[in-house]
TrEMBL record, chain B:
Organism: Candidatus Sherwoodlollariibacterium unditelluris
Keywords: Iron, Membrane, Metal-binding, Transmembrane, Transmembrane helix
Source species, domain of life: Bacteria
Protein name according to UniProt: Hydrogenase formation protein HypD
Gene Ontology annotations of biological process type: protein maturation
Lineage: Bacteria, Pseudomonadati, Candidatus Omnitrophota, Candidatus Sherwoodlollariibacterium
Length: 76, 362
């Protein structure tokens, strides 16, 4: 379905960079997206894709930190 | 890590739900989720069932299709009737009822209206249809604005003469300020939109915590994110220390995406904008700058602009839903005269609309 959820962003993995564009994948979904909003992107990075554009890099350390905070015991 | 499954892990989700129960104060709490994707995922993943009953979620104005003015939709419909024009749009836009028609109805009558995934597709379509005028309906918030801006820059660079953008781009912070001034709302906190914040950063929300003493949390969209965002809000409510928390640190920084912000201001300037349900809000939208006016459908087709019309059709209460004044099921049309198959107002059409999410997942 090509219906759009407006601010939807899908994390996708960069396979190949080609100037202003990059080939990205998520599962079996492959796409060519524009990467002009980001700098210093590398193959293997994850980016958040919105309407065919990478809007931000996903930070793996921060993601781990979020999960660690959730997994820690919590006292109230 | 692929950034999806880890954040949908049911053990983690249930654990946060328990922490929420442990710290929720015994009073009614109103949290507004500003973004339509939060509304949608909140219902889709059944998160309401995991939360204490005294927490009420109010859907905010963050569904761009829902807040587009009647005039904007009517203008798109008028343009679609011209034989020399191809209208390209994101999917949900097709079924939004205008004053007397919709793009879907016009398409059935022979209008050339197509759905695209990205504004960049519009450039390709313009190149292969040099004898047609291509109009892309550019709607959205700060998340989408840089994508539209880059497409306009690309069109200028490639000297494409037959592509035009009819934009209705809106800004989240001015409408949040507007909501804070509405005394009827009694908001206790904002769940702030993660992907708008990927662009604008967390800094812009600080006035809400400082001046209005309302807790904020910038939050991601997976079930774990949403619940953790609610937990971080409740912590603030409990300690009575409003701030702008950031749950979505893997994507959102304090200052946001500076490059994207520069791209937005290169192509657009701030301007007042009409919002369904709210009326005109000062500096709450983006207009195309004069140096790109060759691509601005409003400037190129001035005779096709629809007249300003009142929005409330047939008892539709979308305006009050968007302002958080009522829940969708408080509208007399909800589920009866107005359903996703036969929508009366835009909040029932869009996947992100509060009425649509309520109808499908409740």
């Amino acid at each position: 379905m090509r219906s759009l959820r407006m601010c939807l962003g899908i994390p996708m993995k960069v396979r190949k960079i080609n100037g202003d564009f990059a080939e990205v994948e998520s599962g079996r979904l492959l796409r060519t997206i524009n990467i002009q909003m980001l700098s210093g992107l590398k193959t293997g990075d994850y980016v958040l894709v919105h309407v065919g554009f990478a809007i931000q890099k996903v930070d793996p350390q921060r993601a781990k930190e979020t999960l660690r905070l959730v997994d820690e015991p919590r006292t109230f | 890590m692929k950034y999806v499954d880890e954040f949908r892990n049911s053990k983690r989700v249930l654990k946060i739900a328990d922490s929420i129960k442990a710290i929720t104060p015994h009073k009614s709490i109103n949290i507004m989720e500003v973004c339509g994707t939060h509304t949608q995922n909140f219902h889709r993943f059944g998160l309401a069932k995991l939360l204490p009953k005294n927490i009420r979620f109010i859907s905010g104005p963050g569904c761009p299709i829902c807040v587009s003015s009647q005039r904007y939709i009517d203008t798109a419909i008028i343009l679609s009737r011209r034989k020399d024009i191809i209208i390209l749009t994101f999917g949900d836009m097709l079924r939004i009822p205008g004053s007397s028609s919709s793009l879907e109805k016009e398409r059935a009558e022979g209008a050339n209206v197509s759905i695209v995934y990205s504004p960049l597709e519009a450039l390709t379509i313009a190149k292969i249809n040099p004898d047609r005028k291509i109009i892309f309906l550019g709607i959205g918030f700060e998340t989408t604005a840089p994508a539209i801006a880059l497409s306009i820059i690309a069109a200028k660079k490639a000297r494409i003469k037959n592509i035009f953008f009819l934009t209705s781009l809106k800004l989240v912070l001015p409408v949040m300020r507007y909501l804070l001034l509405d005394k009827r709302l009694k908001l206790d906190a904002f769940l702030c939109p993660g992907h708008v914040s990927a662009i604008i950063g967390t800094k812009g929300y600080e006035f809400i915590a400082k001046k209005y003493k309302i807790p904020c949390c910038v939050t991601g969209f997976e079930p774990l994110d949403i619940l953790e965002g609610i937990y971080l809000i409740l912590k603030q409510i409990r300690s009575n220390k409003p701030e702008v928390a950031n749950q979505y640190t893997r994507v959102v920084t304090k200052t946001g995406n500076l490059k994207a912000k520069r791209i937005i201001s290169r192509v657009f300037k701030k301007s007042s904008a009409d919002w369904r349900g709210f009326g005109n809000i000062y500096n709450s939208g983006l207009k195309i700058r004069t140096e790109f006016s060759l691509f601005d459908a409003e400037k190129v087709f001035p005779n096709s602009l629809a007249a300003f019309t009142l929005e409330s059709t047939k008892g539709c209460l979308c305006g009050d839903v968007l302002k958080g004044l009522i829940n969708p099921d408080n509208c007399p049309l909800f589920g009866k005269a107005c359903t996703p198959d036969n929508p009366v107002g835009p909040c029932m059409v869009s996947n992100e609309g509060a009425c649509n999410a309520y109808f499908r997942y409740r």
